C-alpha cells in the first residue's frame, strides 16, 4: 500500500510547492522501480583454504577484496567487525569542528539538518552539553563527507554491494551524565527503524571521533545475534525516561553475553542491522562523540510496515515529520519518507533531489 498516512509539508520550511512534492514522489517511485528491475544477484558461495565450499551469507564475494578472510569470517560469525584506525585525525577533527560550530551557534543549520537535544537538557539552549545528536547529515557537506568517504565505502561495499545508498546518518555526542542516565541507548536492532530489505545487505559504519571506553558509554553488542530474528521493540520502562525514538527490545533474555566495543579515535565498527546492541551512560566529565551512517543497496526493496512490529515506531516518526513540515497536504508513507532521505553515495542509479 503506498498511501498510508496523509502528510503535510510546509512551503516556507522546505521550499517545495505542492506540485513539486508530487513530482518528487513520482520521480522517486520511478527511480526505485528502475533499480528494482536491475536487482543484483549476490553470490554467497566461496572456497575455503581446504578446497571445501563454504557459504557466506552476510558478506559478498567479488567486491574489492578489502576484507581479509579473518575479518570476513569474524563478521559472518559475530555480526560486527572493528576496523582499526580507518579514518585519520584530519577527518575526525573536521567532523568534531563542524559539530562545535553548530553547538556554539557559529553556524546556522540548514532547516533539514536535525539538531536533537538530550532528554536531561531538553529545556536548555543548544550547547555541547545539550546537543546530543545531529541527524540528516546530507544537509551538511562536511558531515556528509563521512558517509561518502571512500575508505568507509570500500568496507561497506563488502556487505551492501556496488550500488550504495546512505539511508540514516548521525553524529552522536554523549554528554557527561547528570545523574539521570538518560543518554543510555537500550539494547535494540536497527532494522526496527528501516523499511528496506533484505536485512543482510544493510550495514552500519560507526566511527569513534575520540577514545571511546566503557566509562564514557561505548557501544555494547551481543555477538552472533544478527543470525536471529527481528524482535519486538518498545520504549523501555526506565525511571527518568529515555530519549525520543530510543526503542529497546521487549523481554530480552540474553543480556549476559554482551561485549563492550572500546575503540580508539578513527576506529570504525561495521555492524549488521539485526545485531543486538546499545550503549551505556557516560560516567566521565568529557564528551563521547561518534559519527555513523547506515547503508543499503540502491536496489533495496522498500516494504510497507503497516500491520508489522515496526508500525508503532513508524507512526511516531511520521508524526514528528508532519509536525516539522506541516502545512501542505501530500500523500506520503513511511517507505517514501525513507526514500526522500536516502542519498546515493556509490555506483549506479544516482538520484538527486
Ligand atoms: O552511539 C550510540 O551511543 C548508540 C548508537 C546506536 O545504537 C545506533 O545508532 O543504533
TrEMBL record:
GO terms for biological process: fatty acid alpha-oxidation. Gene3D superfamilies: q2cbj1_9rhob like domain. Pfam families: PhyH. GO terms for cellular component: peroxisome. Pathway: Lipid metabolism; fatty acid metabolism. Its EC number is 1.14.11.18. GO terms for molecular function: L-ascorbic acid binding; metal ion binding; phytanoyl-CoA dioxygenase activity. Its cofactor is L-ascorbate; Fe cation. It comes from the Eukaryota. InterPro entries: PhyH (IPR047128), Phytyl_CoA_dOase-like (IPR008775). SUPFAM superfamilies: Clavaminate synthase-like. It is an enzyme of class 1 (oxidoreductase). Keywords: Dioxygenase, Iron, Metal-binding, Oxidoreductase, Vitamin C. Belongs to the PhyH family. This is phytanoyl-CoA dioxygenase.
Amino acid at each position: 500500500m503506498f498511501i498510508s498516512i496523509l502528510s503535510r509539508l510546509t512551503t516556507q520550511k522546505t521550499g517545495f510547492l505542492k506540485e513539486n512534492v508530487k513530482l518528487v514522489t513520482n520521480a522517486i517511485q520511478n527511480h526505485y522501480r528502475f533499480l528494482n528491475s536491475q536487482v543484483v544477484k549476490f553470490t554467497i558461495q566461496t572456497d575455503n583454504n581446504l578446497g571445501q565450499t563454504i557459504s557466506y551469507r552476510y558478506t559478498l564475494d567479488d567486491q574489492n577484496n578489502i576484507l581479509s578472510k579473518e575479518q570476513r569470517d569474524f563478521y559472518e560469525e559475530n555480526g560486527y567487525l572493528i576496523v582499526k584506525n580507518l579514518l585519520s585525525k584530519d577527518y575526525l577533527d573536521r567532523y568534531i569542528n563542524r559539530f562545535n560550530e553548530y553547538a556554539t551557534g557559529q553556524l546556522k543549520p540548514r532547516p533539514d539538518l536535525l539538531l536533537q537535544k538530550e532528554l536531561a537538557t531538553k529545556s536548555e539552549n543548544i550547547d555541547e552539553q545539550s546537543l546530543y545528536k545531529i541527524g540528516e547529515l546530507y544537509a551538511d557537506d562536511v558531515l556528509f563527507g563521512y558517509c561518502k568517504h571512500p575508505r568507509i565505502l570500500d568496507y561497506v561495499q563488502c556487505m551492501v554491494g556496488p550500488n550504495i545508498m546512505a539511508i540514516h546518518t548521525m553524529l552522536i555526542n554523549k554528554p557527561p551524565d547528570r545523574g539521570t542516565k538518560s543518554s543510555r541507548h537500550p539494547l535494540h536492532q536497527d532494522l526496527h527503524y528501516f523499511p528496506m530489505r533484505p536485512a543482510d545487505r544493510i550495514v552500519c559504519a560507526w566511527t569513534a571521533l575520540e577514545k571511546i571506553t566503557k566509562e564514557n558509554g561505548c557501544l555494547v553488542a551481543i555477538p552472533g545475534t544478527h543470525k536471529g530474528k527481528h524482535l519486538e521493540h518498545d520504549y523501555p520502562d526506565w525511571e527518568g525516561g529515555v530519549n525520543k525514538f530510543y526503542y529497546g527490545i521487549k523481554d530480552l533474555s540474553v543480556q549476559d553475553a554482551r561485549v563492550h566495543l572500546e575503540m580508539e579515535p578513527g576506529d570504525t565498527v561495521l555492524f549488521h542491522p539485526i545485531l543486538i546492541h546499545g550503549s551505556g551512560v557516560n560516567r566521565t566529565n568529557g564528551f563521547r562523540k561518534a559519527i555513523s551512517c547506515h547503508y543499503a543497496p540502491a536496489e533495496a526493496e522498500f516494504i510497507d510496515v503497516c500491520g508489522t512490529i515496526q508500525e508503532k515506531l513508524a507512526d511516531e516518526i511520521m508524526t514528528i515529520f508532519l509536525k516539522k513540515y506541516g502545512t501542505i497536504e501530500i500523500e506520503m508513507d513511511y517507505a517514501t519518507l525513507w526514500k526522500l532521505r536516502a542519498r546515493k553515495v556509490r555506483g549506479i542509479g544516482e538520484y538527486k533531489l
